[in-house]
Specification:
There is one protein chain. Helix content is 26%, strand content 24%. The chain is an alpha+beta fold. Strands 1, 2, 4 and 5 form a 4-stranded antiparallel sheet that branches. A 3-stranded antiparallel sheet has the order 3-12-11, with no helix packed on it. β7 and β8 form a beta hairpin. Bound molecules: 2-amino-4-trifluoromethylsulfanyl-butyric acid and cobalt (II) ion (2 copies).
Length: 261
């Protein structure tokens, strides 16, 4: 199956879905404090999406996922399940990942939050993961390949002494949540065959580990953790390839590229 090229009408819908997903992360930011439970954060986002935005939370019941967001703390890599009994505490790093469906089209984005003051190495991991996202994004233009994107991400992560998760990746996105291609974040040779064209829409969402790259799936069949129980960080945007580069659909208010100095 080929990678779909979106029409101008589809791009317009994806632009709106992306903006709405970004607004969920903007809205939740002041609520991400020590003492709040991830179940409560999920409830606030669910209510905002369904009552204020009139969007569908795409993760809810997706292959059986039980919540309207994924909330992944510290050594949880991705797909953390919100839980009323799981409270944030000072020093935690936490990823919140939301996907909305508006008028049949998806917008998918995530970011890290630092709860109070976090250890310098935890802050550094969050920063490098964000730099990895932006280094990948900056590779996006017609005739570049997904190999260029992945190589930029892997090089930066590993130069900083961190590792890139192999088992989970970014993805094409549109009327379906997860479409072709698979956007790997490490330099797999087969990515050289995936040449970017205007109208392609996909996510970039590197998961960067403080220690080793290996992950394991918990018994709930959703929560992914690092095998060595060290920290993991992830940032995600949805973007399209334009005639001369890229357009990010999930940019937050005032957000600027974060690149290594
Ligand atoms: N939002 C995640 C992604 O970036 C997918 C979550 S699927 C779920 O692709 F089922 F875990 F919610
Ligand atoms: Co995604
Ligand atoms: Co996501």
């Amino acid at each position: 199956m080929a990678i779909k090229i979106k029409t101008a009408q589809e791009i317009q819908k994806l632009r709106l879905a992306g903006r709405l997903a970004a607004e969920v992360l903007e809205m939740i930011e002041p609520h991400v404090v020590a003492g709040v439970s991830t179940g409560e954060l999920n409830r606030i986002m669910h209510d905002y999406m369904t009552n204020q935005q009139n969007v569908i939370p795409a993760t809810l019941n997706y292959h059986g996922f039980p919540a309207s967001s994924c909330i992944s703390i510290n050594h949880v890599v991705c797909h953390g399940i919100p839980d009323d009994n799981k409270k944030l505490k000072k020093g935690d790093i936490v990823n919140i990942d939301v996907t909305v469906i508006k008028d049949g089209y998806h917008g998918d984005t995530s970011r890290m939050f630092e709860v109070g003051d976090v250890k310098p190495f935890a802050h550094r991991l969050c920063q490098v993961a964000q730099e990895c996202l932006w280094l990948g994004i900056e590779q996006v233009k017609p005739e570049a390949t997904l190999y260029d994107v992945a190589l930029a991400i892997q090089n930066h992560a590993e130069q900083q002494g961190f590792s890139v998760v192999r088992e989970y990746c970014g993805h094409g996105i549109g009327a379906d949540f997860h479409e072709e291609p698979q956007v790997l974040h490490y330099a797999a040779p087969e990515l050289k065959e995936i040449v970017l064209k205007p109208g392609m829409v996909f996510t970039i969402e590197p998961m960067i580990n403080l220690g080793k790259a290996a992950v394991k799936l918990l018994g709930d069949n959703w929560t992914v953790i690092t095998k060595d129980r060290k920290l993991s960080a992830q940032w995600e945007h949805t973007l399209t390839v334009t005639e001369d580069g890229y357009e990010i659909f999930t940019l937050r208010e005032g957000e600027k590229p974060v690149l290594p100095v």
